[in-house]
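subagent[fold] <- orchestrator: predict structure for attached chain, return tokens only, no commentary.
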Amino acid sequence: MPTPLEIVIEAIAEGYANALARLCECARLRKEYAGDLELASVADVVTRALADGKPVEAGPVKIEVRRRLLGKSLRVLLRGVEVDPDELLTKISQARSKAAWLQSDCSDQAVLEPIYATNDRDAVEFAVRHMDELSGVCEGRAPSLEGLEMPEYVKEGIKRGVERFLKGR
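subagent[fold] -> orchestrator:
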């Protein structure tokens, strides 16, 4: 029968393994949807330029205005490929949806949720303060726990969680 301390260590390990899995999945998704995130970041500027019929160069979008005898026409380029303005607006809408979804599901709060569930202040505090170091686990680098002022059971739980995550990859 496990001791209460062993139960706490396992809870921390499970929380860290789950949080690291989510952290690495979010990093993968950010890379996969980088183009959509870039398009979403310039969406307001591009939409305004389309509505006003003004030229703009923002991120992956370039809008050119051509003067004609009876008005003007727009030439819209997305990553160097000419697209219809309506098609661009559809892509902007899709990009905004993906960006909002990523921002919600991959926020620090959402990623750290499994660690918050451990209800261990030291385990949570380490995760919050060392998020960048923890993201190195996605490339196979374990975080350094040496010299940190925290109980040994928390260090052991974090180590086990990292090992469990790396073993399950």
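orchestrator: received. Logging for downstream: The mean pLDDT is 93. The chain is about 65% helix and 15% strand.
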